[in-house]
Amino acid sequence: MAIFLLQPVASQATDAVPLLSGKPASGVIKGSAVQRYTINVPKKGSFLLTIRATGTPAKGYLPGFNLLNPKNQLALGGARPFVYREYVFKADEGNWTVEVNRGDGGDEGGEYELSLLMAPGIKGKEIKIGEKVSSTLRRDTVDIYTLRGEKDYVAEWNLAWPE
């Protein structure tokens, strides 16, 4: 009599493509297919991961992703119409896997752009103390600014929306 123990093997995706901060990746996803990317996260690193639909919109298309931590455990995931975004703060160090998928499982359209912003390392337009900055934010965009702090100085932000 033979006894076999079967145990699922967690494996980091071998077909995954590295995703770099500030360098979006794009592709087409159809049906139940999954496209994989890896993110190399430094110790206590934080990041913003965004997927957005591109190209001709298909009815019901839900771009999405699952995010697996370095232990290959599901950390978070989901899908939404047009744009899905997640923030991870003080992440575990190591290789994270992003599995791009379709929340709707459809075969029409499916074009996407996946982008990553990683901190530390994100640098934006430098703002000096007392300087006023004006910018226009459009759907699906992020503006990044860098402040240089001084010991015992407290910065205060004021956001104003046009009426």
Task: Present the secondary structure layout.
Layout: E1 17-18, E2 25-28, E3 35-41, E4 46-53, E5 63-68, E6 74-79, E7 83-88, E8 94-102, E9 111-119, E10 125-127, E11 145-147
Parallel strand pairs: 1-3, 10-11
Antiparallel strand pairs: 2-9, 3-8, 4-7, 4-9, 5-6, 5-8
Structural class: mainly beta
Percent of sequence in beta strands: 35-45%
Question: Distance between termini?
Answer: 78 Å
Kindly provide the radius of gyration, computed on alpha-carbon positions and rounded to a whole number of angstroms.
Answer: 20 Å
The spatial strand order of the largest sheet comes to 1-3-8-5-6
Mean pLDDT: 82
Number of strands: 11
Task: Give a structural overview.
By secondary structure, this protein is mainly beta. It contains no helices and 11 strands. It is globular, with a radius of gyration of 20 Å. Residues 1-13 have low confidence and may be disordered.
Key terms:
mainly beta, 5-stranded mixed β-sheet, globular, disordered N terminus
In short:
The chain has no helices and 11 strands. The protein is mainly beta and 163 residues long. The chain has a 5-stranded mixed β-sheet with strand order 1-3-8-5-6, with no helix packed on it.
